Each structure stands twice: as C-alpha cells, then as structure tokens.
Amino acid sequence: GNPFTPLAPSYYDASADVFVPAAAAAPLSSRIDGFTQLDVRIDKTWIFETWRLKLYLELQNATNAANTEAVDYNYDYTERDDITGLPIIPSLGIRASF
What we know:
Helix content is about 0%, strand content about 55%.
C-alpha cells in the first residue's frame, strides 16, 4: 500500500482557530493495507472491407474489493478514516474505425 504519516491527536491553536496535528511517527513510516483489484475486459472485432467494428464489455474491480486508497482524519485529528475506492464499474462500448 501507499505510505503515509500517522498523526497524533492535535492541539487547538486559538489564535488561528484551527486544530494542528502532530506526527506520531517518522514521515511516511506507515503503509496503507495491501491493494487488490481484478479488471476484466472482453472484446470482439468484426472486420469489414473498409472498416472495423469493435464491441467490448469491461468490468473494473470485478471482485468488488473495498480497497483503502487514502487516509483522512476528522476535524481534530482524533479519529482516522480510511477512504476506499470505487465499487464494480461496468462499461459497455462500441467503436468503429475507418
């Protein structure tokens, strides 16, 4: 997985009205969990005298794995939230080339 810097609970800076996080470890010292995804594509091409026609069906993330792609924190950095990727994405297409 991608590296990231774990953050400790923050302190409140009243003069700027923001919560300021502190690194809980060295920069980029942790990694997001492993990422697995299976993409499948089936296509068929018909060849005519002067042109071609292609039809395809594609499935991205065919296993519907909820992979963590990034890490986010709540407003005061006390809770970590994993941002997951997209679910199954079907795509049907047709293409003609001359």
